Amino acid sequence: MAQTLTLKQSGQIVLDLVDTINANRAYLSEIDGAIGDGDHGINMSKGFTLCGDALRAKPVLPGLAEGLDTLAMTLLEGIGGSMGPLYGSFFMGLAESLAGHETLDAALFGEALANGVAGVETVGSAQVGDKTLMDTLVPAREAYRAALAEGADFSTALDRMIAAAEQGWQSTKGLQARIGRAARLGERSIGVLDAGATSCFLILKTLAGSVQQRLG
Amino acid sequence: MNRVINNPDLVVEDMLRGLLAAHAELAAGTDNPRVIKRACAPVAGKVGIVTGGGSGHEPAFLGYVGENLVDAVAVGEIFSSPTAKSFFDAMKAADGGQGVACLYGNYAGDNMNVKMAIKMAERAGLTVKTVVANDDVPSAPKGDEAKRRGVAGEILMWKTAGACAAQGGSLDEVIAVAQKTISRTRSIGIGLTSCTIPAVGKANFHIADGQMEVGIGHHGEPGINVSAIVSADEMARIMVDTLLPDLPFNSGDRVAVLISGLGATPLMEQYILYASVAQYLGNAGLTVAVPLVGNFFTSLEMMGVTLSVLQLDAELEGYMKAPCASIGLTQN
Questions:
Q1: Does B104 touch chain A if contact means CB atoms closer than 8 Å?
Q2: For the structural domain made of A5-214, what CATH number should be given?
Q3: Which homologous superfamily does the CATH classification assign to the domain defined by B10-183?
Q4: Cβ–Cβ of B76/A186 closer than 8 Å?
Q5: What is the ipTM of this complex?
């Protein structure tokens, strides 16, 4: 199995992300409705759809770095609230790391992931345990880093990343929200998954799956 | 849900169309449909005043665009921060070459979007400084003021900073006035009913009939106490007793007082509350130099009231009494 992919030919990965968010629009809003405004799926779908439309309107589908940059800018311009800047910063961090490279390998993916998470940390203030998307993102980054350090190949490292992301996402069910609108509910926020952690898991899972497909 | 709307998903767009049609002398649209500016903005040589926030608080935020107040406003979805791009476009629309003061409220989404907007502004060569309103006393204990939310006290900050900018104040002077205003302002709300975002279609939270939530936030954030409804006079006593020791306000202080309905509380009841507030403040030795009563900062159709008290000095009293014209506040 090849352990790299050509960035210029991998722009479809961004469209896969768009499809995933649109397919889960109702599910994300339903989860958000339990302890939030109930608009997470609507907002995310609005932003990702704008990006999909922009990419599909181009004569040639841009590569992965440019596509992720378009996604970042569309989210920053198209959806406000907290998710615009948080996911905008995440995808901008990924895009910045990939820019100027021809191929994506295991090490570069690790750098990009870390840079994306750092972007989220710069703009937001949530910590692991606050019942936010950080509960998905941070364990994913740590697991990926650890897998590479232990000599795992690209695809295996992605599997480990997804396993950790899923565990982190599921952990939000037992957590009490300490930040954001759901914090108003105090203990009543326990027992429900966090909507941001959910969309974050879906994004990472699609990202990893689409990369793995292209590794052959 | 009985509402005067067309499409629940387009209430913000539809409102903006009506507002611009009704108030062409005060407010104008921009290339960004989510940015409203003062009709004559940018004013060359004047520090630009920018704010922004979610919709559903009308006349805040956009209703304070006008003469000697705010130059440009970023408009978000209901109860949701405007985008970073909209804050940035508002900064551009307000910039008259002397820098921009972005004066907004302390909410996670607004903090993040303003932070990203400032990055964009730096790249575009704009100078932007911020003051973050944190006047809501019940939202965090004393000593933890940085965590408090911004509520109706923001209007007082726009008023003084807007007047300072209109009188030729530099960016640093405008920022200092805004910061001084919000640092000396304390606010508290009492909610009596919930409210419904049209696109969601069901109540955002729940307050039982006959109950009141003391310390409720502008989006239904939890208060400090839920109890049986008391008289307006008792509400006034609770509110004043919470605010005065927090700053603290002292006997002999001159103050500005702002009572705002949350959307569905009649003006009659707001004046009933004001009568008691004025009496309790007087009992504490405070003189109300600037009284404001009305629907200045609402939360859709929530029933309830907020009280904001600003400790004046000569400078702030002058700015509070300066003329201004806008949808939300006009004085000669």
A1: no
A2: 1.25.40.340
A3: Dihydroxyacetone kinase; domain 1 (3.40.50.10440)
A4: no
A5: 0.76
